[in-house]
Amino acid sequence: MVAFLLRRFSQSIILLVIVSILGFVVLNLIPGGPLAQYALDPGMNQDDRTRIAAQMGLDRPHWVQYFDWAWRLLQGDWGTSFRDGNPVLTVISRHVPATLLLMGSATVIAVSIGTWIGIRGATHRYSVFDYVATVAAMIALSIPTFWFGLIGIYFFSLRLGWLPAGNMYTIGDGSLLNYLHHLIMPSVVLALVHIAIWSRFMRTATLDAISQEFVKTARAKGVRERRVIMKHVVGNALLPMITLAGVQLPSLLTGALVTETVFTWPGMGRLFLDSLGYSDYPVVMGLLMFSAILTISANFIADVVVALVDPRIRLA
Questions:
Q1: Per-residue model confidence (pLDDT) at position 214
Q2: Same domain, 302 and 186
Q3: Residues of 124-155 as b/e, b for ≥16 C-beta within 10 angstroms?
Q4: Are 37 and 154 in the same domain?
Q5: pLDDT greater than 70 at residue 44
Q6: Three-state secondary-structure class, residue 267
Q7: What confidence tens digit (pLDDT) does each residue in 132-176 have?
Q8: Same domain membership, residue 281 and residue 195
Q9: Range(s) of the domain holding residue 125
């Protein structure tokens, strides 16, 4: 187990380094680079930009800049925002709770509903429910998230007036009920695609578990069908879903970016787009690294959990 953990941990570190290098290279390839915001300022001449570049260390070779940035990153210095002069970690920390709340709510909705749909679809294979669930999943996977958001705003906010069209809460009302009222629509919209994915994977995993010999043996012994499904089938079908939970995190982060933009939700996705608009590259790079750390950590934890549940994985 120790060897497995060390191997997975070293792979995670290598992947994180690769992500940081690619992110650093891409940001420097953008026209204007980190000094793009100054290039648009008509009050600055080339001498001013050269002086600022020297002050920020941007006149040095790119590989030197990268190692300097990476070393400061390891020490907890993620840079300073061009936009407001605050430390990048401070800027990001203000928006993390909103994104985690949105992603957590969407995950609970997707896992609970998707698992139920997948199990029922597998146990009632080729039924009307199974066909309807399959068609609905294909539709959810084919339509962009922002379209669901706009449709939801049109019907539930503008036409029916049941739910607010955006923001995280109503100014002047900080009650829990008000937060939940604003959370309903963005979390459901973000969860729709993941319900489809989770239900399809759960259906396949359940069908695979049902075909196993131990399930046939339990049925031959006269065990009630409901007990066979809940004790023998579901437990084994959930094993590959643990890995899926870790893999789904990048998709959740991407979906959160779109959902937060549509619903003006003050999370990391909205901060990312705003920072790009202001050419605030230290914050953009900080968000990239924070997302990478979050995603890689989730995959590492998922691997560890699967290894603990299934010892065969440790030898892979």
A1: 74
A2: yes
A3: eeeeeebeebbeebeebeeeebeebbeebbee
A4: no
A5: no
A6: coil
A7: 999 999 988 888 888 888 898 989 888 888 888 878 878 777 778
A8: yes
A9: 93-315
Domain match, 146 and 245 both: yes
Model pTM score = 0.79
In a domain, 81, yes or no: no
Rounded CA separation 121/196 (Å): 12
Q: Are 140 and 192 in contact (CB under 8 A)?
A: yes
Question: Does residue 143 lie within any of the structural domains?
Answer: yes
Please name which of 203, 163, 206, 170 lies closest in space to residue 185, comparing C-alpha atoms: 163
Between CA 15 and CA 23, with CA 18 as vertex, the angle to 5 degrees is 125
255: CB partners within 8 A, 6+ apart? 106, 145, 190, 193, 194
Helices (H), ranges, the chain: 2-29, 36-39, 46-55, 62-74, 88-123, 128-142, 145-152, 176-210, 213-220, 225-227, 234-262, 268-277, 281-309
- Which of 120, 276, 265, 103 is closest to 193 using CA atoms? 103
Distance CA 90, CA 265 (A): 18
Kindly give the interhelix angle for 281-309 and 2-29, rounded to the nearest 10 degrees. 160
Does residue 140 sit in the same domain as residue 41? no
Give the length of the chain. 316
Residue type, 295: T
The SS3 call for residue 134 is helix
- Of 265, 98, 96, 269, the residue nearest 167 (C-alpha): 265
- CA-CA-CA-CA torsion for 114, 116, 119, 120, nearest 10 degrees? -120
> What percent of the chain has a predicted confidence (pLDDT) above 90?
6
Task: For residue 80, give the nearest of 99, 55, 48, 60 by alpha carbon.
Answer: 55
| Cα end-to-end distance, the chain, whole Å | 11
Residue 222 sits in the same domain as residue 294:
yes
- CA 128, chain centre distance (Å): 33
